[in-house]
Specification:
The chain is an alpha/beta fold. The chain contains 13 helices and 5 strands. The protein is globular and about 50 Å long. The C terminus is likely disordered.
């Protein structure tokens, strides 16, 4: 499958913007997880600006596809994506981790696009399963649920309980995405970058496993996600090999960067310069870039009628 060059340029631009905003907001806050945000920038770009069907002006609408950010410490990337989609104001996301702000260090349901607080890892897939079951059995509007997991939380037993139950229920509108960036809080994760082992485990639980070898190639990510949404009769899992701090040459795949903002004088200037080059190399196509037109661009099929209503 090949894609229009303007779409790929757009998705690269959005990923770079998500990366830039994640770096800037966490540096401003003096706290946060920018490297965990950078590993999933291309995943979020492909989801928000091609794969997911939703109304960016009404993120709480039942007709929308839902995204559960199970790796909740990467919340700044989620806020950046909603800023790029036109819902959150850039000024607001720079209140990250400030007293009284709804832009908290981990996603909280005070925001209409957050269904569950995910400060505690290992629960996102269970919640996503419940949401997808409601979509499939109660609402019946064709909406899907996407759950973005970190590879560190794959060591949690609760995650695998959800994998097992989803197979039993056959929730084909549930798509899990594992961001395999290799590095946990204090050491390498259980399987490191061995994405094939994750795939074998997922398949053993009855899921369709789709492997993406380069999670910073937005076209490859998009292909994997679109393959997943076309799976029928069972849930699908996209296993994406990424780099923690991906897109930042001095930090990518390096240990001791978990939960640390990149601060001025400690590499921020170079990191921002690199990302700004990526932004300039891939300016968005005007037809896709204007937020006021996104409802018509993104919401399609049976969901469109529900949103319009």
């Amino acid at each position: 499958m090949s894609y229009d060059t303007s779409l790929i340029r757009e998705l690269k631009h959005r990923a770079a913007r998500i990366r830039w905003l994640s770096l800037k907001t966490t540096a401003e806050a003096g706290s946060g997880h920018p490297t965990s945000c950078c590993s999933c920038a291309e995943i979020l770009s492909a989801l928000f600006f091609k794969v997911m069907r939703y109304d960016p002006k009404n993120p709480g609408a039942h007709a929308n596809d839902r995204l559960v950010m199970s790796k909740g410490h990467a919340a700044p990337a989620l806020y950046a994506a909603w800023c790029e989609a036109g819902y959150l104001d850039e000024k607001e996301i720079f209140t990250l981790r400030k007293m009284g702000s709804r832009i908290e260090g981990h996603p909280m349901p005070i925001l209409p696009f957050v269904d569950v607080a995910t400060g505690s890892l290992g629960q996102g897939l269970s919640v996503g399963l419940g949401i997808s079951l409601q979509q499939q059995k109660v609402v019946k509007n064709g909406a899907r649920t996407f759950v973005l997991l970190g590879d560190g939380e794959m060591a949690e037993g609760s995650v695998w309980e959800a994998f097992a139950l989803a197979d039993n229920i056959k929730t084909s509108n549930l798509i899990a995405i594992i961001d395999v960036n290799r590095l946990g809080q204090s050491r390498e994760t259980m399987h490191g970058h061995d994405i094939r082992t994750y795939a074998r485990k997922v398949e053993a639980f009855g899921w369709e496993a789709i492997v993406v070898e380069d999670g910073h190639n937005v076209e490859a990510v998009l292909k994997g996600l679109e393959q997943a949404v076309n799976v029928s009769g069972k849930p699908a899992c996209v296993i994406v090999k990424t780099l923690k701090g991906g897109g930042l040459s001095q930090i990518a795949d390096k240990e001791n960067w978990h939960g640390k903002p990149v601060m001025p004088g400690q590499g921020l200037e170079q990191a921002l310069a690199e990302v700004e080059q990526d932004i300039m190399k891939s300016p968005p196509a005007p037809a896709i870039a204007r937020p006021e037109e996104m409802t018509g661009k993104i919401v399609t099929g049976p969901v469109a009628e529900n949103v319009a209503a």
